[in-house]
Design goal:
The complex is a heterodimer. Chain A is of the alpha/beta class. Chain A is about 40% helix and about 15% strand. An eight-stranded mixed beta sheet of chain A has the order 1-2-4-3-5-6-7-8, with helices on both faces. In chain A, helix 1 links the parallel strand 3 and strand 4. Chain B is of the alpha/beta class. In chain B, the strands form two sheets. Chain B has a nine-stranded mixed beta sheet, with helices on both faces. A two-stranded antiparallel sheet of chain B has the order 8-9. In chain B, helix 4 runs parallel beside helix 8. The chains are: A alpha/beta, B alpha/beta. Chains A and B meet through strand 1, strand 2 and helix 11 of A and strand 1, strand 2, strand 3 and helix 2 of B.
Amino acid sequence: MTEAPGTRTKSRGRVASSKNETPTFFAAGDETLFGILTHPIADPVGMGVIALPGGGYIPSTHRNRMWVRLCRAAAAEGLHALRFDYHGVGESTGVIRRYRLDEPFVDDLMGAVHWLEDDGIDRFITVGTCFGARTALSASGLIPGLAGLALISCPVRDFGEGEKASTHIATEWPMGRYVRSALRPQVLVGLFDARRRRSYSRLAKAKLHALARGSGGKGSAEGSASPNFLQPLSQLVERRIPVLFVYGTDDMAYEAFRGALDGRLGELVARSESRIQVETVPGLLDGFPQIEAQDRCLTIVREWIASHGGGGTPTQENKTWTSD
Amino acid sequence: MRSASEDRVSRSLSSRTDPRTGIRKEISFLPYRGSGIFACMHFPQGSPSTAVVICSPIGAEWMRNDRREARLADALAGRGLCAARFHYRSTGHSDGPPEELSVDSMYEDAGFIANRLLRASGATGLSFVGSRLGGMVAAAAASVTDAHSIALWEPVVNARRYFREVMRARVMSDLGKGRGGAGASEALFAELERSGCIDVLGYRSTEHFTTAHWNGASRWDQPASLGAFCSFSLAAHAASVTSIGRPQPSGVRRVTRSRSNPWAPPRRGGSFANGGNSSGHKSGSKR
């Protein structure tokens, strides 16, 4: 699949359309997932981009067709691009019991990878946002042909849907403040309300988990990043696989990411010899609620993909890690 | 039954039959006016008598409703009807730049999909289901086809009011971030006029799309198009729509939210979308 630099037909400025796309069903675990494969409109480079949406039942188009635009642009770089619905979302089968960052949908991503491998594609770049970013990160050790990850608004801590506050409290508050807060009269009155009782229970469990991990409000060697985040990232550094982090400056995840740089994450970034790249755009990226931030993010990711295995002429450095 | 010519024009058809229910799902890009329309058709076992076209909302409302509509289409196919879901041109997986989206193009797409579904399924009856802005599209499409019934799920009945809500959402978002304030709506309209489009929570709202409905009554407003043509309409606020296709007395039924409906998240506010105008929902008979 590898070609000599300079012989490639480029389609810069052109984007693919539905004429270049194939809707498909593929198996992933016990479920059948739906995806759309965008075929390259430039000479194929034998690499696939897999776009992963976030949690919260977001279909494979993503907000404002972000992944449609990304996949069609990637096709102009000679890449195959697949966007797909997680199980329980869109046209895929199954039911989602819950979204938790420590239980990402690795089976779904691996189903997509194996389906593309059957099509003769053996190198991959995964692009994910929020929950999708953590899924891409968690599955990275299972993909031998991984050529890079673009992780957008990637959370560094673990939490489930609706558990952000409790996780934050559990990891950030010291024990004394935590107990004082729990003994406030309004909290005790709240124990008579079933909904608030469940909320307190989640918070107490999060605190116990945090204490068990040794990060319960007193800081740990890992900073405030989860081992589920750090371990695969560490392996990527070892494998010399490039990783792009993109955050909105207003993202809560960015604040946590910056905080975590004081710990082991900072060491990994330093050890990566610039293979871990961090970019920011003004505003919010989590959920893509702003068009300007969407466009800037897409530009960053597209340029990064092009320079790391797309239709751009590979540099000497790129060639070392984009080839098997 | 599909003809050879239809097979030629349906690009890249992907099909899956559920081994448990026997429902066949066909997904393809259907070429229409130079663009590919993403369409998903749900066929039951056996020959369906009625085809149902589901007209989605757009933007964030579409993202929230997409799975529900997929389940609805499966449920309809489970009852022996065939159903089609689709993405309007310039939205979702379909082709087209965002600035070309209009209620006219949405309505054309719905009519096109209705024709394709009728031809592909061999059904003789036609129904429409529309939710939010899709309700407006469904009502308009039903008015020019042989549709015998229509179900509207929390429909937009007044385009001007809908766009005011859209603007309000953006203003509230700005206020939450400490921007905006007095005159924010005016500033948004000025921005819309100046740049041709504004950002509403990550979606483009174009001047072309918005002001067409803002300046005076829209020709798509529902009381006119709905009342004039449908022999049976069901205007539902997040309530069961499984009565589609069953013969019902002529006239519009207005159904309020049902707590027992598993698809209906409990919401505050009135029982009918946008304070719907009940006086406008008098039905006439088409035939």
